[in-house]
Amino acid sequence: MQCVFKNLLKSAVARPSGIRSLKMASRAFDSIPLVDVDKKGIFKYVLIKIYGNEDCAETSEKLVVRGYSDCKFHSDIYERMMEICKKNGLDSQCLGGGRIEHDPEKKYMKVYGFSQGFGKADHVESKRILQTKYKDYEIETTDEGY
């Protein structure tokens, strides 16, 4: 985690206000939730890697899942996350996409499909991340369907 903000640390040494920037960026990284998906329905999702800026040799990173029914394209979902990352001095990479079927009444999710623009996400990894928030859900993965 320390290296993610290496450049900010260099700045902090040069000027006292830099320590505040380092702490703010670290808090921003930690505050980004692993999962943010719509509460119900069938919608597109993307698997995104979040990490420090490119000048850091040993970056800390985390994978997050985002899925929203109001986004027509997978790229719309990713652009939302990119904006959040940029505001917080972080970088991101979309690792792929698919669809999620979310039925909260049955405590069930199905992760499947692919993104024409980003390719297929690792649905098993996406399931693992979803389970951090939806611990009592049955979450199924399949490579079938679009």
From TrEMBL:
<keyword id="KW-0221">Differentiation</keyword>
<dbReference type="InterPro" id="IPR038596">
    <property type="entry name" value="Janus_sf"/>
</dbReference>
<dbReference type="InterPro" id="IPR007702">
    <property type="entry name" value="Janus"/>
</dbReference>
<keyword id="KW-0726">Sexual differentiation</keyword>
<protein>
    <submittedName>
        <fullName>Sex-regulated protein janus-A</fullName>
    </submittedName>
</protein>
<dbReference type="Pfam" id="PF05005">
    <property type="entry name" value="Ocnus"/>
</dbReference>
<comment type="function">
    <text>JanA and janB regulate somatic sex differentiation.</text>
</comment>
<comment type="similarity">
    <text>Belongs to the janus family.</text>
</comment>
